[in-house]
């Protein structure tokens, strides 16, 4: 889909060379449309060597078992997004430990997916009945007979066999940067 009108001032857009790349740019103001992006998040919550999975009740992925997750809201910090998504989809309370995997999918809407390792706090998995119709903690053996989505299979391997703490929240950066979500190795 081509952007025809400026989201800043409403005037028509045109194709223009911006730093060697043809981009949509406003004919009136300095606005440049840099592209279309979405950021998804996923949770890897492990309890007693079992991973929290939910079964999708809607497309995309209806009928597949996946890790809980979703998309960030415009003004929501990413670490709040994943805590909210886990609670909404499964009723489980979990806290962010760190970022342990990324998936990059360049396409018409460029998708970046950030996988978080999370600490189980409390709660028994209960599906929300809208986005997911089943939820639970499952072992690798149990997953062998389940319809686990391929990408989730990869993430489960990261959760159970990963050998890194990944990127962790920098709670005391050397310079306070209000409003930033900072993670470091």
Radius of gyration: 20 Å
How many distinct helices?
3
The CATH architecture term of the largest domain is Alpha-Beta Complex
CATH topology of the largest domain: Nucleoside Triphosphate Pyrophosphohydrolase
Shape: globular
How many E-type strands?
12
The oligomeric state of the chains shown is single chain
The first-level CATH class name of the largest domain: Alpha Beta
Strand and helix order:
EEEEEEEHEEEHHEE
Tell me the helix content. 10-25%
Outline the low-pLDDT stretches.
none
Number of domains: 2
* Mean pLDDT over the full residue set: 95
Structural class determined from secondary elements: alpha+beta
Calculate the terminal CA-CA distance, rounded to whole Å: 38 Å
Question: CATH H level of the largest domain: which superfamily?
Answer: Nucleoside Triphosphate Pyrophosphohydrolase
| Biggest sheet statistics | 9 strands, mixed
List keywords for this structure.
185 residues; alpha+beta; Ubiquitin Ligase Nedd4, Chain: W; Nucleoside Triphosphate Pyrophosphohydrolase; 2 domains
What does this structure look like?
The chain is of the alpha+beta class. The protein folds into 2 domains: 1-34, Single Sheet (Ubiquitin Ligase Nedd4, Chain: W); 37-162, Nucleoside Triphosphate Pyrophosphohydrolase, CATH 3.90.79. It has 3 helices and 12 strands, in the order βββββββαβββααββ. Strands 4, 5, 6, 7, 8, 9, 10, 11 and 12 form a 9-stranded mixed beta sheet that branches. A hairpin with an 8-residue loop joins β5 (50-56) and β6. The two termini are 38 Å apart. The mean pLDDT is 95.
């Amino acid at each position: 889909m081509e952007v025809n009108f400026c989201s800043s001032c409403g005037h028509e857009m045109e194709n223009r060379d911006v730093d060697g790349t043809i981009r949509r740019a406003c004919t009136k103001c300095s606005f440049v449309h840099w592209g279309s992006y979405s950021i998804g998040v996923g949770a890897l919550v492990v309890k007693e060597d079992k991973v929290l999975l939910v079964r999708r009740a809607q497309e995309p992925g209806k009928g597949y078992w996946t890790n809980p997750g979703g998309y960030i809201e415009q003004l929501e910090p990413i670490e709040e997004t994943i805590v909210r998504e886990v609670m909404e989809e499964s009723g489980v309370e979990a806290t962010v430990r760190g970022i342990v995997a990324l998936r990059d999918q360049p396409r018409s809407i460029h998708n970046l997916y950030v996988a978080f390792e999370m600490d189980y706090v409390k709660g028994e998995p209960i599906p929300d009945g809208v986005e997911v119709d089943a939820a639970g903690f499952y072992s690798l053996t149990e997953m062998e007979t389940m319809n686990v989505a391929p990408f989730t299979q990869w993430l489960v391997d990261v959760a159970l066999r990963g050998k890194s703490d990944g990127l962790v929240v920098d709670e005391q950066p050397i310079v306070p940067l209000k409003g930033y979500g900072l993670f470091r190795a």
